[in-house]
């Protein structure tokens, strides 16, 4: 465990030195503040909680931005150090390869978690100070921040799998962008096309649930837009969670599995990789 913490600390220091922490936090905070105040502008006339509107807006932002940031953090975590020759030096110390993967993962997750908590927290605090926050929505807001961090962990783990799989940084970057495009854009477009073409003949409700869980972005979206009655009502998906049968426990479990599986596969690939 000590080796894992040491490697995680090194990744944190590298993130500070490369301005990753500052840049990511500033970006999330700026976009979150913009969405919080622009999105909540009409809430006074329609009697909707400004914080609920902010949760819907930030959930949409998270689906596009957090996976991209996570992949940019992690896509060269292994292959980059192998190319630079620093991985051989690191493995000369008494440290197991799985500890290297876990330590780097913990460090990158800490960077992303800090940026998400501070960036989104600033937006929530601004809404609160403006006197437009419904106290009942704070639970959903905190859950949104936690699940956003979990979604980031999913794509950091996927980035590690890509980094352990390919042989050079250029290929890793290309595959990482392809992964982002697939899960964030192409998967849902393809699923919608299948549902329209099928017209309910073959794709049952159970099959649709399984297809939704196969995309961590969809699991995240369902988790945040259906968990709270206020948020689901404003988002226009009230009752969707009940109809799909995918409760918060199932969705969190699916996201957790999406973290464990790619990270385990990355550790297994790295264990057999020559350095």
The chain-level structural class is mainly alpha
* Shape type: globular
Number of strands: 0
Poorly predicted regions are 233-242
> What value does the average pLDDT take?
83
Query: Helix fraction?
Result: over 70%
Between the first and last Cα atoms, what is the distance in angstroms? 23 Å
Strand content: under 5%
Order of helices and strands: HHHHHHHHHHHHHH
How large is the count of helical segments?
14
Number of domains: 1
The whole-angstrom Rg is 20 Å
The biggest sheet, with number of strands, parallel, antiparallel or mixed sense and barrel status, is: none
Structure, explained:
The chain is globular and about 55 Å long. Helices cover 81% and strands 0% of the residues. It contains 14 helices and no strands. Helix 7 (97-129) packs antiparallel against helix 14 (248-271). By secondary structure, it is mainly alpha-helical. The protein has helices at 2-17, 20-39, 43-46, 50-74, 79-84, 86-91, 97-129, 138-165, 169-198, 205-213, 216-226, 229-235, 240-244, 248-271. It has one domain.
Features:
14 helices, 0% strand, mainly alpha, 275 residues
Quick recap:
It is built from 14 helices and no strands.
Secondary-structure map:
Blueprint: H1 2-17, H2 20-39, H3 43-46, H4 50-74, H5 79-84, H6 86-91, H7 97-129, H8 138-165, H9 169-198, H10 205-213, H11 216-226, H12 229-235, H13 240-244, H14 248-271
Helix pairs in contact: 1-7, 2-4, 2-7, 4-7, 4-8, 4-9, 4-11, 4-12, 7-8, 7-14, 8-9, 8-11, 8-14, 11-14
């Amino acid at each position: 465990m000590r080796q894992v913490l040491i490697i995680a600390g090194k990744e944190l220091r590298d993130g500070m030195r490369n301005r990753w922490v500052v840049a990511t936090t500033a970006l999330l905070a700026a976009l979150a503040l913009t969405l919080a105040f622009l999105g909540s502008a009409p809430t006074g006339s329609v009697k909707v909680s400004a914080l609920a509107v902010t949760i819907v807006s930030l959930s949409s932002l998270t689906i596009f931005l957090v996976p991209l940031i996570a992949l940019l953090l992690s896509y060269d975590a292994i292959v980059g150090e192998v190319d630079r020759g620093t991985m051989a030096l690191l493995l000369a110390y008494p440290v197991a390869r799985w500890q290297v993967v876990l330590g780097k993962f913990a460090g990158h997750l800490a960077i992303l978690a800090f940026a998400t908590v501070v960036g989104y927290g600033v937006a929530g605090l601004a809404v609160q100070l403006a006197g437009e926050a419904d106290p009942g929505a704070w639970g959903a807001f905190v859950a949104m921040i936690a699940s956003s961090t979990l979604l980031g962990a999913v794509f950091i783990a996927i980035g590690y799998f890509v980094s352990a799989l390919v042989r050079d940084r250029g290929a890793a970057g290309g595959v990482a962008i392809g992964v982002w495009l697939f899960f964030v854009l192409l998967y849902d477009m393809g699923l919608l096309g299948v549902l329209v073409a099928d017209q309910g003949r073959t794709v049952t409700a159970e099959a649709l649930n399984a297809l939704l869980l196969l995309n961590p972005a969809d699991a995240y979206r369902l988790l945040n837009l259906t968990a709270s009655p206020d948020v689901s009502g404003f988002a226009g998906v009230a009752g969707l969670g009940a109809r799909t049968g995918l409760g918060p426990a199932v969705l969190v479990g699916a996201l957790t599995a999406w973290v464990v599986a790619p990270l385990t596969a990355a550790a297994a690939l790295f264990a057999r990789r020559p350095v």
